[in-house]
Amino acid sequence: MAGLPPGDDGAKQASALPDEAEARAALVLALRQRGVGARNVLTAIERVPRRLFLPARHHGLAYDDITLPIECGQTLSAPSMVAFTVQALDIAPEHSVLEIGTGSGYQSAVMGYLAERVETVDRFSTLTDLASRRFAALKLENVTATQADGFDGLKQKGPFDRIVVSAAITSVPDKWVQQLKPGGLLVAPIGQAKQPQSLIRFTKSESVMTADTLMQVRTVMLQPGIAMKL
Known about the structure:
Blueprint: H1 9-16, H2 20-33, H3 39-47, E1 68-69, E2 75-76, H4 79-89, E3 96-100, H5 106-112, E4 117-122, H6 125-137, E5 143-147, E6 160-165, H7 174-178, E7 180-190, E8 197-204, E9 209-217
Parallel strand pairs: 3-4, 3-6, 4-5, 6-7
Antiparallel strand pairs: 1-2, 7-8, 8-9
Helix pairs in contact: 2-3, 3-5
């Protein structure tokens, strides 16, 4: 799946810069020092050109461990947040993953190198369209972006082995639980707006969801519906 097709100037720019490989390697080293230990996650992060998922004005900050603004007033999570979240999902090569909140598509792409299939949804068509082009540039044919209301999940493509949520919610909707396979994991920030939230990993058994708190985070709240103009 690695590699970039001819004719995609943005992808070429992201991969051809002389310092690109060095910057990705330095990012992986920094993530390792911060406690990210899953080698498959670090390898996937090193394979994805984060610069490709940012507006041109922020390319110089692509490999800093910071949150950055993207289109539609949204943000691209810091690489450490992506790394810890994906590590918590414990994705295997045979897994199907549902991501609620595509954003730039960066986390989707990282998971695309780990899972058999990634379905990602966002309320903004601008974001799903841009993400789809980026997946195509990286030849990630197993990653698909769809405009949809995240609170509904994606029943027609489920059930899923893993579900991950990129924005905070106050509680897990029943629809997501129904679309998660028994034994599956769901990782989401839980809490209130403008307050510290908890990144929680839920495990589904036949009759109950158990929860483990992973870390404190602060992110925007997941919004219902779809955006009609963007």
